[in-house]
Amino acid sequence: MWLIMAALSAVFAGLTSILAKCGIKKTDSDVATALRTIIVLLFSWIMVFVVGSAGTITAISTKSIAFLILSGFATGASWICYFKALSVGDVNKVVPVDKSSTVLTVLLAIILFGETEHLTVKLIGTAFLAVGVFLMIEKKKTEAKDTRRTWLPYAVGSAIFAALTSILAKIGISGVESNLGTAIRTGVVLVMSWVIVLIKGKGTELKKLDRKELLFVFLSGVATGASWLCYYYAIQNGKVSVVVPIDKLSVVVSVAFSYFAFKEKLNKKSLTGLVLIVAGTLAMAIWA
Fold first, then answer.
1. Cα separation of 254 and 241, whole Å?
2. 178-199 helix and 211-237 helix, angle to the nearest 10 degrees
3. What is the dihedral sign for C-alpha 15, 16, 17, 20?
4. What is the pLDDT of residues 13-33, one digit of tens each?
5. Residue 233's CB: how many other CB atoms inside 10 A?
6. What angle do CA 136, 220, 213 make, to 5 degrees?
7. Per-residue pLDDT tens digits for 92-122
8. End-to-end CA distance of the chain
9. Alpha-carbon span 255 to 262, nearest angstrom
10. Which segments of the chain does DSSP mark as H helices, in order?
């Protein structure tokens, strides 16, 4: 079941990237992130009440709460970087770099959680992922010079914080119902994202929202909520070093949709990188 949930997480995460890209053409990326988080929080708490885990919140240990909060901060930082990168770069370039968090996450899971089963396969798969991401980083020659320089640091920051998110969440969600853990983390992300909006003085942007883009922001929030619920169920019940690579297969969904929605084509080098990412991920999933 946790493998199935990890796969569903990848599908919803892939849709999130495309829907979010559609929602931040005119809308400020920080404002869009804050608005999306409201939807994700509502979605998360609805699921908490559906599964009946709200009553267990008082039984959560201080350690779990602390790590869930830290995971929430890491998620918020990752989102802010990610959607800023999406607002200035191509989906089929930003997403693979963001998914490079898999490499760091797998290595940390091996070191911290002792997930050393089939270690050789995991290391080879991780190497494939790293090389694949490197090949996909190259920008198209038609892009402006300043765009080529600005999206990459944000995408790298997103990847680093995403890796920390998975590790901190694995620790924090131990003994906590996965939907409840997701809801608590999302609350932290919500506070963080709105603080960023207010600090940067972007509150006035709310009056300028495009209704069509607002719809896409809403839909991306729903997709994110579904992805998170599947992902943290898989994290709680499976192996981090396997769940994370499967979840990162969302890059395939994102690249496919970016081709049809934004006409973003891959050159041979980038396509080779994508194949390596998929091959490395499948190798780790098959030998899970």
1. 22
2. 140
3. positive
4. 888 888 888 888 888 889 998
5. 24
6. 100
7. 778 778 877 878 888 888 888 888 888 888 8
8. 13
9. 10
10. 2-23, 29-51, 62-88, 91-98, 101-113, 119-136, 145-172, 178-199, 211-237, 240-247, 250-262, 268-286
Give the integer Cα–Cα distance in Å for 56 and 196: 31
Spatial contact of 128 and 283, defined as CB atoms under 8 Å apart: yes
| Length of the chain, in residues | 288
pLDDT beneath 50, residues of the chain: 140-147
| Tokens encoding 275 | 């194949």
Is there a contact between 205 and 27 (Cβ–Cβ < 8 Å)? yes
CB neighbours of residue 286 within 10 Å: 11
Q: Letter for the amino acid at 21?
A: K
Query: What does 88-155 look like in DSSP terms, one character per residue?
Result: HS-HHHHHHHHTTHHHHHHHHHHHHH---TTHHHHHHHHHHHHHHHHHH-PPPTTS-HHHHHHHHHHH
Which residues, in sequence order, are CB contacts of 105 under 8 Å at separation 6+? 162, 163, 166, 167, 240, 241, 244
